[in-house]
Fold these 2 entries.
Entry 1:
Amino acid sequence: MSDNGVLVEVRDLVKHFPVRQGLLQRQVGAVRAVDGVSFDVMRGETLGLVGESGCGKSTTARLLLRLMEPTGGSVKFEGEEIAHIKGGRLKEMRRGMQMIFQDPYSSLNPRKTVGTIIGEPFTIHGLAKGEGERKRAVRDLMDRVGLNPEHYNRYPHEFSGGQRQRIGVARALALRPKVIVADEPVSALDVSIQAQILNLLRELQREMGITLIFIAHDLSVVRHMCDRIAVMYLGRIVELATNEQLYCHPRMPYTGALMSAVPVPQPRLAAAKKRQVLAGDVPSPANPPPACPFHTRCWKAQEICRQETPPLEPKDGGNIAACHFPLTDAEVLERVPTARTA
Amino acid sequence: MAAPLLEVEDLRVHFETEDGLVKAVDGISYTVDRGETLGIVGESGSGKSVSSLTVMGLTRARNARISGTVRFGGKELLGASDEDMRKVRGDDIAMIFQDPLSSLHPFYKVGNQIVEAIQSHRDVSKAQAYDRAVEMLGLVGIPEPRRRADSYPHEFSGGMRQRAMIAMALANDPKLLIADEPTTALDVTVQAQILELIERLQREFDTAVVVITHDLGVVAEMADEIAVMYAGRIVEQGPADTIFNAPEHPYTWGLLSSIPRMDAPRGDELVPIPGRPPSLIHLPGGCSFHPRCPFVRDAHRRVEPRLDPVDGNSRHKVACLLDSGTRKRLWEELQAGVKPGDARRDVIGIGRPDADQPSQDAGLDAPRR
């Protein structure tokens, strides 16, 4: 057992999806969805994974929960290697790790009542003895997440999007897990409902001491929720820092560009700040650029960025970043609205 | 002063359904001038998309009951023949949608689709139209436009499809561009590219833009004027700076306080709007926001507010039964971090009246302090 506060330890995690072609379905390449990712998740913290579509954040989450097999690397949960365990031990491990999904419509079985959906984890793990006890536990959970326990026998379609997301949260809480992975939990919801769910997650985490891995593309939501944040690009972590450090002193130009691109709800600031527009699209993860993966879109890139992969190392301010030419404070201040709030 | 480019007056779009009459849009009015950008913000079901589809003559369901006026360049569009509408659509008025795949035909090459859009409005040869299509693709920033014009939509990335759709929409130099959630499906770096592109094209061609979105950041960056919609009506309308810095409708306050902000220190807790949007069949009586409003008074359940100008600022209109002085004080308190319930007590001087218990101040008397 590790007692240095590390709950999940991820090292050199890799997931490649083979690309097959032709009559014999020979493998002609691989989509490098996750390409050597290492990080620790500390007990009780909220760790954010951010990046654009295709950066590998959701695949990383699924690997942590062993919803898919990694191609390589290791994931340790409470010191135990889980990358290749099977059967009973895998089931036991999953009691401690649960997931909340993005789409509250497709992640709930439409033919089952809410009571059955939330109570299913008890059945699967043989926890609640008898119908009565299970029902009581489910009603407690419903009450806990702000659903009316009297709606126990209703079906998912009778609930609004926000309420369905609460059902998903209740189901994830049922086994009192140590870690919850929330994959874009609010991006399908209207703004006024988003705030309700975000507040609920924070409140539950405070009260139950749950560790949260929070995956999102919305940088303002991530800032609100997370203690530490890893920025991903093309299957790799390109910057990792505490909330304060990342939002006030980002070092990696990609992080800076992401932050400058977020439209701010303040016309005066919107007019004043520099919008760093990146050229082109994210390259294909089946054929990532050599050396620094960001060099094709980076406005600071020089010859060395095309030749040598920058190591992920501590930069000035304590951020860990993979970059040959980190941002200067002046560049940050010009582009990143949060830097002005420090 | 010249007449505005687009004038929408008392537009209503109701749908007859088995469950009852759905009042999707219930009497909205706005104008857009040349070169100006109007932002329409609201949550799902607020009627923001239906109202714009109706302006384009695209609300064609048989159960739709449409009334009001939509004048474009002084010409009435509601009730115009299909033939006349086809002439306007894609020529003087163009529209871009959230999902570019649904507006690009999967079987035809991108260049040819733009050619068709041009030739249906302009008497030009296929070759001329094709050159124009390539020119437009280059203008919206698609690399190697002549080669890419020969591609199918599925060969484009999401951002490139959105660009291709914008190229098609702008191919005939429209006077008005309606953009319905133009960047919602896109990543933030691509969103920045598209916003930059729309702004640039607008500067160059003096196009008027109506942008419809749920994203307060997007309207703050794009719009000159903003209309906030709730349950089929405009509840607040005014210059962008006023809407963000001196809003007077409790719903606008709710929207602004429920989003985490990049332009402020990291806050502890968001202040969500309680409850959820009402059914458009059974709208609450009186002010339709009253069940969710922290500042509701008894009379607000019976009296319907009108969208009236705020004293001293004829461009800023608010549909709220509280008087403007009270609203300004409430906003000040909320800005200072006071919770809505406490702000109510401070400014209005009473706790929240219960639904079944008539409160003592039924009238709209001056607030007590």
Entry 2:
Amino acid sequence: MLPAPFEYHAPRSVDEALDLLDQFGDEGKVLAGGQSLIPLLKLRFASPAHLVDINKIKDLDFIEERDGTLRIGPLLRHKAAERSSLLASRYQVMADAAPMIADPIIRNRGTIAGSVAHADPSGDWGTVLLAMDAELVLRSKKGSRTVKARDFFSGPFSTALEPTEILTEIRIPAAKPMTGGAYLKLERKVGDFATVAVAVQLRMDDGKVGSAGIGLTAVGPQNIKAEKAEASLKGVRLDDAAIKQAAALAADASDPKADHRGSVEYKRNVVRVFTERGLKRASERARGGG
Amino acid sequence: MAVETPLKGNIGDSIKRKEDDRFIRGKGNYLDDISLPGMLHMAINRSPFAHARIKSINTSAAQAVPGVVAVVTGELLAQHKLAWMPTLSGDTQAVLATDKVRFQGQEVACVIANDPYVARDAAALIEVDYDVLQAVVTPQQALEPGAPLIRDEKEGQKDNHIYHWEAGDKAKTDAAFEKADKVVKLDTFYPRCHPSPLETCGIVADVNPATGHATLYMTSQAPHAHRTLFAIVAGLPEQNIRIISPDIGGGFGNKVPIYPGYVVATAASLLIGKPVKWVEDRSDNLISTGFARDFHMSGELALRNDGRMLGLRVKMLSDNGAFYADAQPSKFRAGLFHIVTGSYDLQAAHVETDGAYTNKAPGGVAYRCSFRVTEASYLIERLVESAALEMKMDPTEIRLKNFIKPEQFPYMSATGFEYDSGDYPRAMQVALDKLGYQELRKEQAEKRKKGELMGIGVASFTEVVGAGPGKHYDIVGLRMFDSAELRVHPTGKAILKLGVKSQGQGHETTFAQIVTEELGIPAADIEVQEGDTDNTPYGLGTYASRSTPVGGAATAVVSRKLRDKAKKIAAHLLEASEADIEFDHGKFFVRGSPSKSKTIQDVAFAAYTNLPEGLEAGLEGVTYYDPPNMTYPFGTYLVVVDIDRGTGQVKVRRMVAVDDCGVRINPMVVEGQIHGGLTEGFGIAFMELITFDEEGNCIGSNFTDYLLPTAWETPKFEMGETVTPSPHHPIGAKGVGESATVGSPAAYVNAVIDAVGHLGIRNIDMPVTSDKVWAALNEKGAAE
Amino acid sequence: MGQSITVTVNGEQRSAEVEPRLLLVHFLREKLRLTGTHIGCDTTHCGACTVLVDGTPVKSCTMLAVQADGQQVTTVEGLLTGGALHPMQAAFKEEHGLQCGFCTPGMMLTSIALLKDNPDPTDDDIRWALSGNICRCTGYMNIVKAVKSAAVQMKAAAAVPAATAAARS
């Protein structure tokens, strides 16, 4: 269980990194936290000829609210997100998710951006970004483009990110008043992938739901945005009936596979239960409680 | 001003461990830390298929990799009659596959290279042409007529059946069932799991081409037995083989079998003339080394209306994998499973066991099972739970009604075990008091009214350990005595050499304590050595909780031998007659005149300088101890769980463990052993599983799929004790290493069943994962 | 062969030529012969290989040696100061926080980092922080006790200079 040989590059600037990636094309791979990539290299499920390590590039670990947007850099580690008082106070769905990623030591190295780019259907951050209507900035030597999270994922480990691109920024609409979120994750133990997880983001507007974001982890070929469930909540009072209906729609939106974590019926039920619980918790937080 | 006197290390003292000094500094000497000049590295190419014929093996690409020194295949080994080797259960096992592969992960070829990365690169380049055959993945499938024959190479083997073995009295049991008011049945499965010590298995084989001496550094729980087996299998003269088992990072039975990797590395070192190191990856370890359990069990309990048990019938089918390689006493085909009457006065019992080959890794007896006692304990404790539910009796009440009573010891069980001592009601009472049982039952009743699920699980296990009396207990013919060699130096310090081998149990400290108690030399002055077959007396090693019962007894006996000689020397020094000499914890004195005394240190010096006429110099001895009986630790475990009806998640709220292992040499060490066992039991009950799909692909061959509990999931344990000494053991100790893994799985599962029993649910097989709990609730309309 | 790296290991600069694919754990164990860092798995789960990189716990089996170029690495061998045990080492022995010793280096280093962030952790804080380090022997009970004990020792030791300074002022 050891990697095949490769060449290693540690550029000092984003431009230098992009230059290298442009040269290597399909043969190049970005190394950020390495907590998903290095295990794959060891299993030889991936054998890129060139690794482009971006860890030596300065100032890529930013997390700040600016111009109505929460901006997160490619080297923000899960641990920094876990410790961020900004996320804890205003972006609770992210604050809930951060400590649930892998285990505490892996969180020291792994990055949000790396996790999103890796696009494991059982990964947590993609789901959170879907619930929050995030945007992703992708840069290559040729320029920059922005892709909505909902358009970014295209299947297991498959995204819009080209081999010549780096995900340089995650952009999330800045938290408005009366917003609250929650992330509920069922895992068999710390460090296991999710059996099921649900991300909920709510903005309340004069006692009714202004907007709702619901994302689902590990119940489909990619992280899922439960759009019908979201739509069912828009403009309604968040009473038990509305919650139940949204939860049922979220369960319908899921497409889980039966495996050792559970049957299809079981996983769908957890989606439903977690959506209910998540909506209740998010709404409490939106009202300033929880 | 009081000065704290450090504990001397008598029995009962919780002295700190000597071995810790090197471990906390990172200066342990584990197998992979060993590096010898010129050492080469071995990697194994393994079969991707569970059952396939080998058409050809092409090693040319592998051999061409720079740095590769040799590639070994089954064909090469066959030329040296090493392609097959005997197992510890009288079967044979492939070292490297020749005709067929019989489980996914089976060893096919080995690369020896100058660098471990190169060895793995080259191993991946070995091309094997397989003809895939139908895989047999369950023992039931294996025993169906017309099932593919797995061991077609074995002469006389016509099917996949390995053994049939019975214990107890069938007629008497049938009669008891005739008279029963009620018969409670339970079919349950104890799934395949794996000891998974944190350190994997490995060897550094160093065969010296000039002298023919083979020094094998090996992760071995039984170095002497392994040496003898190597001599027989490899044809090396036994005096030229030295096995050194260094520090071992956990054994739990995983390091008892002899694995193909050990044999090939040794053969390679012999052929190449350089040391060869093989250390397996975790994936190798989980997919190919000695697994545990995989027992399909059917139990029936015959009861009177008042809850008194009349008889027990058990049928069991074990899945032994492709080779029958259980490490167990040769006279018992299913280990000590027939202890299945447990803590209960069951005068009629009959046990029928069968074993089958399947296309899976070989093994079965491992993971702190005490030779299949965990399977037996699980079955009886789960069956008693079912009986309690069926009879609408409290699970503690039905146990108390049927426990073997203290006055009945020594107790001869219906399947031939003579239980040495026990006080089951007392252990249970201590546990119930510690838990606050009645209050929790009240809480459960309240919660049930609100539809909330809470359960209290009980397990009252009796273990049988300390293998064992040579008449009945042997491993491949080697009787299961054990040994201790003790030598006291002129300056009063001592060295103790043992035939057992610690893998973390603390022998360097606890065995010294036995000598301290018997001879009075402080534990800090006693060096304990294990694991080097050139320097220690022959023993059968450490597993099945046998070290304290057998090795500890040998240590006490040899200490007493030395004490007898010391008395003679003391008498000489004190100018008194030997009959007048008394001994008290290191002091010899004349009866009636305690001031006329000599210390053991005085005597030790005199043993080399001032001896009575006719007495040989020195103060040393060796004892090979044949225990008169096994020992029977026991206890009651209580578990409280809460269940989430929406997700099926089970949370262990409390876990009370009351253990009785007789006299405790070092209470701190004993508690540590129990903590560890309760955690492994927790893992087994709730998350650990090796399973296979229909093609025999193994799921659970890495830590992504084989789940081990972390500090976060693992419950906090509340400990209690009772002490019922073993009447036959020299210091009254029984051993404790496996009690908790033997007894706790049933406690955890019974807690879940107790939470949902009122809904009619009687069984959820381990691992009791959240989806299974939810599915059981859903079937009864009780899920959220 | 590969790249030239210089890593400060336990305060000492160590340089070597390594293949890019060489894992940090193998660099430490095989090239530097610091065998106190152990390998227990191949899927980044067990934590036996945990070291501190610039003070932060990292699973050294999931980091390349080349990535450690220019950084500070602390292994268990670096815990002794002038031959004296680190309070964490002393506490692990005192509280019987180890049995086979294989997970112990990783446990201690992760715990040391925990106490830097949180000098007064609860049992749950400790269990959470150690949930990336597997132990098969101890059942974690005495590991938690050891970390708590070390926390008490280290707080007391830290208080001494402060008390002295206060006394002086």
